[in-house]
Amino acid sequence: MILVTGGAGFIGANFVLDWLQGSDEAVLNVDKLTYAGNLGTLKSLRGDARHVFARADICDRAAMDTLLAEHKPRAILHFAAESHVDRSIHGPADFVQTNVVGTFTLLEAGRAYWSALSPSEKSAFRFLAVSTDEVFGSLGATDPQFSESTPYAPNSPYSASKAASDHLVRAYHHTYGLPTLTTNCSNNYGPYHFPEKLIPLVITRALAGEPLPVYGDGKNIRDWLYVGDHCSAIRRVLEKGVSGETYNIGGWNEKTNIDVVNTLCDLLDELEPKSSGSYRDQIEFVKDRPGHDQRYAIDARKLERELGWKPAETFETGLRKTVQWYLTHRSWWQDVASGAYRRLESLNNE
Ligand code: NAD
Ligand code: TYD
């Protein structure tokens, strides 16, 4: 089996669902269920023996040791993190705890477990760390995209904590020979995205008739990656990636925030028209985020050249699918909005 951390969050849960659609290899899903963890996302797996859910904190060394000893995974895929930049500005401590101390604890537990494996199991084992392009800092309008050799220059407490996590993973490969893989991806979007992040926030607030807040002048650029494409890239890196290497994952979709918000409004005008006017009428420019990075952009050519991976979705197809998903899965995000999702503590007590 494989061990996934953070598999009740946005990307981790998409990964677990996709994995079990394409494989009978079981998943041990280790998640603390912070505000971002939602077992409602995984309810289609209730009763499925291929999915084992363990509520645990990656900072808890004894719990990690026990889970590894009991389940003997062939790989650890590490998604768990505090992930929202705005929250990191208001409360950075949790980011240092989970993203730095948590990764360190998981690396230590993983190293002890890996050291005791047989030689063939040892060489097949992988520790794959899921990271972000935000570790590379901010680009100017004409700068080349981030490549795997771009120097780290994190600007927010979130990106600084993820950079520290990446450095620890690198050091565990270099110092102890732990077979690691690191992926750095751009902004994801798609189903089950927690509605405090830009794309789901705009869709759900638009439908509720609320203002759509765009920070600053709306000209900041993000490079959008459909979550299903991210999951397929991670599977490819796990299968074919070279131990110790890092891979950038991107969707080749650089867009300004205001373009993203306008496109979402236009899709909603088409798919769920208002009785009068356009959803664009709800857009409001608000005070900018402190230290707001201007532009992120990923050069994903290494992954294409060396492992033959390319995204399947364009921004247009991925965004349309995403809007359609939010329109047809209202109870998922309404349970998040009401807080009902926090009452789910195991897949059996729903
Ligand atoms: P998310 O915030 O939606 O989910 C994080 C999950 O981790 C939640 O289920 C949460 O309960 C769990 N978790 C948090 N702290 C934990 C702890 N101490 N122990 C165990 N579980 C814990 O995040 P996401 O958007 O799914 O991101 C997943 C990974 O991808 C993160 O490492 C993030 O840095 C990275 N990433 C995300 C994006 C993006 O656009 N969302 C982009 C690049 C990289
Ligand atoms: P976000 O989804 O928080 O991801 P990140 O900060 O990790 O890139 O934000 C994406 C972009 O959208 C970012 O430039 C900030 C901007 N933004 C808004 O303009 N309004 C909002 O309400 C939010 C949440 C984000």
From TrEMBL:
Q: Which residues are in the NAD(P)-binding domain?
A: 3-322
Recorded superkingdom: Bacteria
The organism's taxonomy opens as: Bacteria, Pseudomonadati, Pseudomonadota, Betaproteobacteria, Burkholderiales
For whether the record's keyword set contains NAD, the answer is: yes
- Reported cofactor(s): NAD(+)
**EC number annotated for this UniProt entry:** 4.2.1.46
Q: Name one GO biological process term.
A: nucleotide-sugar metabolic process
Matching InterPro entries: dTDP_Gluc_deHydtase (IPR005888), NAD(P)-bd_dom (IPR016040), NAD(P)-bd_dom_sf (IPR036291)
- Write down the CDD domains for this protein, in alphabetical order: dTDP_GD_SDR_e
The UniProt similarity line reads: Belongs to the NAD(P)-dependent epimerase/dehydratase family. dTDP-glucose dehydratase subfamily.
The record, for Gene3D superfamilies, names: NAD(P)-binding Rossmann-like Domain, UDP-galactose 4-epimerase, domain 1
Q: Which reaction does it catalyse?
A: dTDP-alpha-D-glucose = dTDP-4-dehydro-6-deoxy-alpha-D-glucose + H2O
Q: Which organism is it from?
A: Caballeronia glathei
- Protein's UniProt name: dTDP-glucose 4,6-dehydratase
A Pfam family the protein falls into: GDP_Man_Dehyd
Q: What class of enzyme is it?
A: lyase
Enumerate the UniProt keywords alphabetically. Answer: Capsid protein, Lyase, NAD, Virion
SUPFAM superfamilies cross-referenced by the UniProt entry: NAD(P)-binding Rossmann-fold domains
Q: Does the keyword Lyase apply?
A: yes
GO molecular function annotation: dTDP-glucose 4,6-dehydratase activity
